[in-house]
Structures are given as C-alpha cells and as structure tokens.
Design a protein that fits this description.
Length: 386
C-alpha cells in the first residue's frame, strides 16, 4: 500500500459555551440576542410539548423576543412543538419533523435551530440539526434539571433504535447552551429530582464538596427550593463541561467513560421497564449497584454505600424497582455496555468520593450478590417507611 504524501492529521477547533440565567426571553432576552452574529440569521425554534404545555407563555415569548431583535433574528414562523420524553427518541418522528422543518423553512448552515426541552427531545432534535445539511448550528435550552446538569450541556445527541438506547447519534458540540432555570418549577417531582442523581454521580467522581453540599441541601431540594437547585445544577453542569472541555477526550475515543459511572445498569433498567423508570431514577439505582459491587469485591466497609443511599433517599429517589429482580436480563447490560464502548469493557468504580478506577471485567457472582443487596436495601426501606 502506498500512502499519498498529503495524508496527515487534521484538527478542527470547537468552542463549547454554556450559560445560565433565569428568564432567557423575559427580561428582553438581550444577552441571548447579543450573542448571535450581527448579520441577521434565520432561526427555527423547536419546543418540547411538555415544556410548552406547562409554560403556555414560552412559545409566545420566543416569538416576541425574535421580533424585538429583528436586526439579528429572522424568525421563520411559530415555534415547532414536538413530543417530549423518551418517545421523542424511540422512533424517527421527531427527527423527521425537524429535518422537514429545516428544509421547508430554509434553514441553512448559517442559520440556527433553537431547541428548548428535556434531554430526550434535545437528543432527537440535536441529531436532526447535526445531520441535516451536514450540520446546522444548534442553540440548546435544556428545560429539565437532568438536561441542565448533564444531558443538555454535553456534545452528544442520539435516538434509540432496534431496542438499543442511543444507537444512532453523533458528537456535535452545540453553538451554545443556555440553562434557563425559570422553567424548572413546572417539572413533575420525578423530573425535578432527576438531575440530582447525576449531581451525586459527578460529585462521587470528582468533588466531595459537591456531595456534602447536596447532602446539606437535601431538604430544601426536596421542598423544591429553586435557588438551591440552581446552584447545584450550576456546579454539576460545570463539572461535566470541565470534563468535556479539559478532560482530553471530548468525543470519547479513549477506552474509559468515567461520566458513565452507574450507567450500564441504568440504561438496561430503563430499557427493561419500557422507559417507565426515568433516567434520573435509574442512575440513582445504578450508582448504588456499582458502589455495592466495589465495596464487596474490594472488601471495603459499607460506609460510602450507606452514605450515598441515605443521601439519594433523602432527595426522594426510590432505590429499587421490580425489574432488578430479573438478574439475568439486567446483567446482559454489561455486554451491551461493552459493545457500546467499542469492544473493551471499562466500568468505573468509586471507593471514596474523588477516588475512582476502571475495571475491565466483572465478577458475575459478586455482581449478582450486589444486585440482591441493593434490591433488598431498597425494599427494606420502603417496608420500614410504609
Ligand atoms: N446527550 C447526552 O449526552 C445525554 C446524557 C445523559 C442523558 N441523556 C438523555 O436524556 C434523556 C433524559 O432527559 P430528561 O431527564 O431531561 O427527561 P425527558 O427529556 O424525558 O423529559 C421528561 C419530561 O419532562 C417534560 N418537560 C420538559 N421540560 C419541562 C418543564 N420545564 N416543565 C414541565 N415538563 C417538562 C418532557 O416533555 C418530558 O415529558 C434520556 O433520553 C437520556 O438518554 C443524554
Ligand atoms: Zn446520565
């Protein structure tokens, strides 16, 4: 084989910018408009129907904002409202709706898709934006705690296919992300707490002080204190963004994926329950399973396992679900995770907050025991509480 002399490395620079505010469009939305290029850009706004339904003024506020900043924004019609929740990713309906709107509203590579919604909807819209015209600029406005803390501030998108989560997707840094916390009060209790299991996850990986802050703030968080939630989301999002921007592997080419701590079982449980179990609740259980496994296989004390269980419980997370009883199927999640990583298994284990390492194989008997212990701990708590 002869290599052509011009072959070589090529590098492309990306900027990943994440902002936080309360009321992106209410206080005139000047900051957001000022970020846009000076020459007028066409904008297609896409809204999650769960957000649009519970915040009935939101769509109108975007339209008013666009008209107010007509020097920079050329609105292309009313916001397109698409289904939110996991169904947005479970087939191609939302993806196709957005591709069609990009085409019909003449959105080009210099235009913007402005997508506001939960992590699932943002994943589907993000895939449509990243692939139509080989990439249209995307501004994300995550509208759930989980998407503001984690899913919406990253550089990935995707939809589920053939029964596998995120089977189709790309790495495509958004043009900007704006976490608008004014939309959070309308979330259900389940979606309000969802971002907090990701906060506990990233705190266990990287920052014990965040774990302590979440523990101290648990009552306020459960009582839906928006100021406290805003601060926890900001710290959690910043740790995720730091990992992506400064961690040296933004497109996850290397073997390990530390931010996926607790996720092999979380993804499998979501799939097994037909997504009735939310990602946030599944991650809480997934963290407990892997903490328990690490304690068991290393012969460590249960102190950290109990500390995290008590923190997650006080935040309102149910730490078990019936699907955990089907150990055979749950354990298949390890194999799926291996495939997702590209062949070599790397599962993150945490022994102390801030102290993690990867294992490349799992002792299945010890994992079965960990599943049993985790399930029993969750059930015991319900029995005692009930
Ligand atoms: N791309 C990534 O890097 C990444 C990372 C982690 C998770 N994810 C994905 O994120 C998804 C989970 O996201 P999620 O937790 O945001 O849930 P979600 O997107 O499923 O949204 C939950 C529900 O909240 C509704 N909703 C959205 N905003 C609302 C608001 N302000 N008020 C009231 N209701 C509102 C939605 O319509 C939906 O019914 C999963 O599919 C997961 O795989 C992606
Ligand atoms: Zn997650």
């Amino acid at each position: 084989m002869k290599e052509l002399p011009s072959s070589g490395t090529l590098s492309v620079q990306w900027t990943h910018r994440v902002f936080t505010c309360r009321g992106a469009f209410t206080d005139n939305g000047d900051d957001l408009a000022a970020m846009l290029p000076q020459e007028s850009s066409r904008v297609l706004a896409v809204l999650d129907d769960g957000l649009a339904r519970t915040n009935p003024d939101f769509a109108g506020a975007i339209t008013t904002w666009a008209h107010r900043h007509a020097d920079r924004i050329e609105a292309t019609g009313p916001p397109l409202i698409v289904p939110g929740g996991e169904q947005a990713k479970n087939d191609r309906t939302v993806f196709d709706q957005v591709v069609r709107a990009i085409h019909e509203r003449h959105i080009c590579r210099k235009s913007f898709v402005l997508a506001a919604g939960g992590g699932a909807m943002l994943d589907a819209v993000g895939l449509a934006a990243a692939t139509t015209h080989r990439g249209v600029r995307l501004i994300r406005l995550p509208s759930t705690t989980l998407s503001q803390a984690d899913a919406g501030v990253g550089v990935k998108n995707g939809i589920n296919a053939f029964g596998a989560k995120n089977l189709i997707g790309t790495f495509a840094p958004p043009w900007a992300v704006v976490n608008d916390t004014a939309v959070l009060p309308t979330l259900s209790d389940r979606d309000w707490r969802a971002g907090l299991s990701e906060a506990v996850k990233v705190a266990l990986l990287k920052d014990e002080s965040l774990l302590s802050e979440v523990e101290h703030a648990a009552v306020a968080l459960r009582n839906r204190d928006l100021d406290v939630m805003e601060r926890i989301i900001e710290r959690t999002a910043d740790l995720h963004v730091a990992h992506i921007v400064r961690g040296g592997d933004p497109f996850e080419i290397k073997r390990a994926r530390p931010l996926d701590f607790g996720h092999w079982s979380a993804h499998q449980l979501e799939q097994m329950t037909g997504f009735r179990l939310s990602h946030g609740d599944a991650v809480a259980i997934g963290l407990m399973i892997d903490l328990q496994y690490a304690a068991l296989t290393l012969g460590n004390s249960q102190t950290l396992v109990q500390r995290v269980a008590s923190c997650l419980r006080s935040l309102g997370f149910p730490l078990h679900c019936d699907a955990m009883g089907d150990q055979d199927r749950l354990i298949e999640g390890i194999e799926r995770f291996r495939e997702h990583l590209g062949g070599d298994l790397a599962i993150t284990m945490v022994t102390e907050p801030g102290a993690s390492f990867e294992v490349s194989s799992i002792d299945i008997d010890a994992m079965r025991q960990s599943l049993e212990l985790t399930l029993r701990r969750g059930e015991d708590h319900i029995t005692r509480a009930g």
